[in-house]
Amino acid sequence: MNDLPRELYRTEQSRELDRLAIEVYGIPAYTLMERAGRVAYRVLRRCWPQARRICIVCGGGNNAGDGYVVARFALRDGLTVRVLTLVDPERLQGAAGTAAKAYLELARTEPFTAEALGEAEVIVDALLGTGLDRPVEGRFAQAIAAINARHLPVLAVDIPSGIHGDTGQILGLAIGASVTPTFIALKQGLFTGAAPDCTGEVIFGDLEVPPAVLIGIEPAARRITAADVNPHLAPRQRTAHKGRFGHVLVVGGDRGMGGAVRLAAEAACRLGAGLVSAATRAEHIAPILAARPEIMCRAVAGPEDLEPLLARATVVVLGPGLGSSTWSQALFERCVAFDGPLVIDADGLNRLAQAPPRRGAWVLTPHPGEAGRLLGCSAAEVQADRFAAVAALQSRWGGVVVLKGAGSLIRSPALTWLCDRGNPGMASGGMGDVLSGVVGGLLAQGLNCEAAAVSGVWLHARAADQAAGDGARGLLATDLFEPLRRLANPK
Ligand SMILES: NC(=O)C1=CN([C@@H]2O[C@H](COP(=O)(O)OP(=O)(O)OC[C@H]3O[C@@H](n4cnc5c(N)ncnc54)[C@H](O)[C@@H]3O)[C@@H](O)[C@H]2O)[C@@H](O)CC1
Ligand SMILES: [K+]
Questions:
Q1: Residues contributing to the annotated binding site for AMP
Q2: Looking at ligand 1, which atom is closest to the CA of residue 172?
Q3: Ligand 1 pocket check for 453: Cβ under 6 Å
Q4: Is the dihedral of CA 168, 174, 176, 180 positive or negative?
Q5: Over 80: is that where the pLDDT of 137 sits?
Q6: Which range among 153-162, 167-176, 348-357 shows the weakest confidence by mean pLDDT?
């Protein structure tokens, strides 16, 4: 994954890049297709070196053209190749028509049937690429369902058929691939929405297109890499003291939800905040202190009790376990007026939905359900276009917005960032509380909202990957603390 470029593009931009490569840089369309097919074939051989029987399923566009090139390379290597078509190869146009013709000079194709998948060991999905412009139905849907039903290794050419390249949404039905070699530019939809369940490993081929082609087309989003994060985590000076690293105040933990405060507060400690306080219900004080004596715990009965704490805080994390009582409402109202950076999560976001204040220096960290409540739509509608949702949230609420979920998105006034790390073990209670504390801990050390959100999301996901090891099921939020500490001190 580390070899992937960091720039992400929309499909219309990737088409423009193709056009520039062809028209301005003089690379013939068929040459690009040959290179795409060669990359895909190499990936196939590398992933399944023992496979001898390959089935290539082709649609009617350039994605199919890539498939015909793969078929030709496979034939040349003496593999048993079956090309199954959804569109008569004689009808293919342009470079795809050339690729189909070159294959037909060597061998025949057959119309797609589920039975014709026969004894295949690997299936190549060359049905639909970035030209997908409507929901998959009819024969295409039947073909995708039949391929998925085989549970065989599948290589998806450029993008799994049925996935929309801009949103990662499944339009109707999509191929579940094991690996997706993708070309020229990374499509932003490969890494979020439903796509992470469908792509398998994404492998990039630049098709030898000169980097100059990319100049002038502003990427739609950026993948976060270590290079974006580690410069913010420079080694500390020997003379450092805790007064230099901020004071995080975590506010939340209504009755029955004290754990959320403890998780956020400990996460802020683990990221290196100088001091961390928690303001919560009286009954949570003893258990939090027993578990983590480094956290300064204060019982708050109402907003007046917050005053001395807010006076000392440099950052407030508002929301973990905050609940929806009158106590919660009063604390919320006082804290959103805090004169410093804020992280708002969980119940804090639900309160924001009811009373819309707008404020610059904050990081909002909704999951799709909370994002839906803020935008007045369903979580499913948020998931259908996460890029649009995070942009709408940021434009309405200001600050920096983190839309959580596979392929977390971070939207600042200037940029959209995407995190392609993390694992399904993070789908467990308390993970969001840890993230809000991580971001708070980074803000306390002087990072701005964008840098804290980008770095926090990435460190949190990387910590979860390290903690999960070989198995995501059963991962606990507290398992992230040790790897977080390691990651907060990059070598
Ligand atoms: N020169 C280029 O432009 C290159 C393109 N490449 C390949 O070309 C692909 C894009 O090619 P195209 O723009 O021809 O698009 P596609 O190959 O994705 O297919 C478009 C065709 O599918 C039809 N279609 C769209 N949605 C459908 C649906 N739901 N059900 C049935 N049919 C549907 C369209 O009407 C159109 O005929 C890329 O994904 C990539 O694989 C690569 O060969 C690299 C170079
Ligand atoms: K495809």
A1: 404-408, 432
A2: 29
A3: no
A4: negative
A5: yes
A6: 348-357
- Following DSSP, what letter does each residue of 14-73 receive, concatenated? HHHHHHHHHHTS---HHHHHHHHHHHHHHHHHHH-TT--EEEEEE-SSHHHHHHHHHHHH
User: What's the CA gap between 239 and 302, in Å, rounded?
Assistant: 39
Helix/strand/coil percentages in the chain, nearest 5 = 45, 15, 40
Q: SS3 string of 181-196? A: EEECCEEHHHCCCCHH
The residue to mutate among 22, 98, 132, having the most atoms of ligand 1 within 8 angstroms of its beta carbon, is 132
pLDDT at 104 (0 to 100): 98
In the β-sheet with 247-251, what is the strand arrangement from edge to edge?
Answer: 186-187, 7-9, 221-223, 416-419, 408-411, 400-403, 362-364, 342-344, 315-318, 247-251, 275-280, 296-299
Which residue minimizes the CA distance to atom 25 of ligand 1? 132
43: its two tokens: 């990936």
Q: What's the Cα-to-Cα distance from 231 to each of 162, 272, 334, 396, 490, rounded to whole Å? A: 39, 15, 34, 31, 9
Q: Which residues are annotated as a binding site?
A: 63, 125, 129-135, 158, 161, 260, 321, 367, 404-408, 432-433
pLDDT single digits (tens) 87-120: 999 999 999 999 999 999 999 999 999 999 989 9
Query: 189 alpha carbon to ligand 2 midpoint, in Å?
Result: 13
List Cα–Cα distances, 57 to 29, 117, 216, in angstroms: 21, 9, 36
d(CA 204, ligand 1 centre) in Å: 18
Band the pLDDT of 470: cuts 50, 70, 90: confident
Which ligand 1 atom sits nearest the alpha carbon of residue 165?
A: 39
Answer whether 33 contacts ligand 1 (Cβ < 6 A).
yes
CA of 263 relative to ligand 1 center, distance in Å? 47
For residue 1, what pLDDT is reported? 36
Residue for token digits 């073990």? Answer: 425
pTM (two decimals): 0.96
Whose structure tokens read 């939020």? 477
Q: What is the pLDDT of residue 243?
A: 86
Complete domains list, the chain, with CATH: 7-221 (3.40.50.10260), 226-487 (3.40.1190.20)
For residue 2, pLDDT over 50 is answered with no
* Exposure letters 399-416 (e unless 16+ CB within 10 A, then b): bbbbbbbbbbbbbbeeeb
pLDDT value of position 216: 82
Q: Which residues of 192-218 are buried (b: 16+ CB within 10 A; e: fewer)?
A: bbbbbbbbbebbbbebebeeebbeebe
Ligand 2 centroid to residue 69 C-alpha, Å:
14
Tell me, what's the pLDDT at 359? 77
> Would you place residue 414 in the very low, low, confident or very high pLDDT band (cuts 50, 70, 90)?
very high
